[in-house]
Write a structure and sequence with these properties.
The protein contains eleven helices and six strands. By secondary structure, the chain is of the alpha+beta class.
């Protein structure tokens, strides 16, 4: 799933600037000042394997939002392998070694809501909101696909998801203004720039993706030291730390990582 947040923000900012008179625009508060007014208290800790964990406590409802962000996106794709970050996002929902089958089916049984994943130039993220009683199940699922995915990736799954992503590209390209993003990228960045190609990738590169390519993408980028886990809701650090240690603590570090 692709989320062009930056494009939306840019369009919204332009619309606001046009709507305001010069006098009103001068009176508008600077964005930096507005950001300072946002106060979301949190605590943070890091496991020995480099996984960073952020916890925000909010007891108004017995639910916990589980979100994990990997420091990998389309800017990490070498020439001839465009679309791999997004394609691998799809692979992550097709079962791991100890939770085979459709990831979404497990989440439904946990009573999860608002679950999906997105890919962009700089990152890939996965998220779900679960009842407090389903938190351990969600942590197990996320940890199993972080630490135990390799033997769950098959050629059949890859072939299927290549077709799914190619169809997603066709749908996007054929909707009104569907080709605008390609032109924007072409006009703003040279081809060799990390942002010089679209996150969806090319049909040819997607078709050429191999099982070895996907396994290498996983081992190169999906280590705990290249990820941030966020837990927000009916939980605090004292409750979160032992659960995170239990499910993520034995996962080995990967070769890359902003945190280690």
């Amino acid at each position: 799933m692709l989320k062009p947040f930056r494009s939306l923000i840019a369009v919204s900012s332009l619309a606001l600037a046009v709507a305001l008179s010069p006098a009103q625009a001068q009176q508008a508060a600077p964005v930096a000042d507005l950001v300072k007014t946002v106060n979301i208290p949190y605590q943070q800790f890091t496991l020995a394997n480099g996984l960073t964990v952020i916890v925000h406590e909010d007891r108004k409802a017995p639910i916990v939002a589980v979100s994990i962000w990997y420091d990998v996106g389309s800017k990490h794709e070498p020439k001839g392998k465009t679309g791999y970050a997004h394609l691998f996002e799809h692979i992550m929902f097709n079962g791991s070694e100890n939770a085979q089958g459709d990831y979404f089916e497990y989440l439904k049984k946990l009573g999860a809501t608002d679950y999906n994943g997105t890919t962009w130039f700089d990152r890939t993220n996965y998220f779900q909101t679960v009842p407090k009683a389903g938190l351990e199940g969600a942590l197990f699922l996320e940890s199993d696909r972080m630490g135990h995915l390799l033997n769950g990736i098959t050629q059949e799954k890859l072939t299927n998801q290549i077709g799914v992503v190619q169809n997603e590209k066709r749908q996007g390209d054929n909707q009104p203004y569907g080709l605008v993003e390609y032109k924007q990228i072409e006009m703003l960045t040279p081809p060799e720039h990390p942002y010089g190609h679209s996150t969806i990738g090319s049909m040819e590169d997607l078709q050429a993706a191999s099982l070895d390519d996907m396994k290498k993408w996983f081992t190169d980028h999906y280590g705990p030291n290249n990820a941030i886990l966020v837990l927000a809701g009916d939980i605090n650090v004292a409750e979160a730390r032992p659960l995170v240690e239990k499910y993520f603590g034995d996962i080995a570090k990967g070769p890359e990582g902003r945190n280690g």
